[in-house]
Design brief:
239 residues; mainly alpha
C-alpha cells in the first residue's frame, strides 16, 4: 500500500489570490488621477493652460480613465471598483453631491483669505482667522445632520437643505463683499461651512444606508477618492 499525499496547495492558492488582484485597474486609475491632478494643480503655474503639457495631461488622464472603465467592465476578474455600484441612484447622487459641495467649500476656503489679504492688506494669519466661521459651521452641520438622521431616519430633506443653506453664503458674498467687508460681514461664510457639513454627513449616510454590506467598503473608497479629487478641483477653479 502507498500513502497518497496530496500536493501542497500553498503555491497554487497564492497564485490564485494574486491572479485575482486587479493590478491593471489599479495602475490605470492611479495614473489617470496623477495626470489630472497634475494638470489641475500645475496648470497656469508651471505651464500655460494653452500648451502641449495641458493637452498631453488632459488627453492622457481621460484616456487612462476610459481604459480603466473598460478594464473594470470586461477584463478584471475581481474589479477594484465594480462599476455596477454606480447604477444605484443613492451612490451616484452621493458622489455628485459630495463632489460639488467639496469643490465649492474648498473654493471658498481658498478665496476668502486672499480677499482679505488684497482688500485689507491683512497678514496671512489675520486672513486665515476669517475662515473660522466656515470651519465651525462645517463641524456643527455634520453633528446636526448625524443627530437628526439618528433620531428620525430621514436624510433626503437634509440633502436638499444643505445646498440651499450653503447657497446663502455665495449669494451674500457676491452681493455684499465689495472690498470693505467688516467683522459681521466676514461671518457670511458660516452658512457655506454649515451646509457642507450637512451635505457631507447626509450624502455619506444616504450612500451607505441602502447598500449591501459587501459593497460598503468599495463605495466608501470611491466616495473618498471623489472628495479628494474635488479638493484640488475646487482650489484650481477658484484660482
Amino acid at each position: 500500500m502507498k500513502l497518497h499525499v496530496g500536493e501542497k496547495p500553498q503555491a497554487t492558492s497564492k497564485e490564485n489570490k494574486l491572479a485575482k488582484v486587479d493590478f491593471l485597474g489599479t495602475a490605470l486609475i492611479g495614473s489617470s488621477i496623477v495626470a489630472m491632478t497634475t494638470l489641475l494643480d500645475q496648470g497656469g503655474k508651471s505651464f500655460p493652460w494653452r500648451s502641449w503639457w495641458t493637452l498631453l495631461l488632459a488627453s492622457g488622464g481621460v484616456s487612462l480613465l476610459i481604459a480603466f472603465v473598460l478594464v473594470e467592465a470586461y477584463v478584471a476578474r475581481e474589479p477594484i471598483f465594480n462599476l455596477r455600484i454606480l447604477r444605484r441612484t443613492n451612490v451616484a447622487m452621493a458622489y455628485i453631491i459630495g463632489a460639488l459641495q467639496v469643490t465649492a467649500q474648498l473654493g471658498l476656503m481658498f478665496s476668502v483669505p486672499l480677499y482679505f489679504q488684497v482688500t485689507q492688506r491683512a497678514s496671512m494669519t489675520a486672513a486665515g482667522v476669517h475662515l473660522i466661521p466656515a470651519v465651525v459651521g462645517n463641524t456643527l452641520g455634520g453633528l446636526l445632520a448625524g443627530t437628526l438622521i439618528r433620531r428620525t431616519g430621514q436624510f433626503k430633506i437634509l440633502l436638499v437643505l444643505a445646498g440651499l443653506v450653503a447657497g446663502i453664503s455665495y449669494v451674500l458674498l457676491y452681493l455684499r463683499w465689495d472690498g470693505h467687508s467688516g467683522f459681521w460681514e466676514s461671518l457670511f461664510i458660516f452658512p457655506g461651512g454649515f451646509g457642507t457639513g450637512i451635505a457631507g454627513a447626509s450624502s455619506f449616510i444616504a450612500m451607505s444606508a441602502m447598500l449591501p454590506a459587501e459593497d460598503i467598503a468599495m463605495a466608501t473608497a470611491g466616495y473618498m477618492l471623489v472628495a479628494g479629487f474635488s479638493m484640488t478641483a475646487g482650489v484650481t477653479t477658484s484660482n
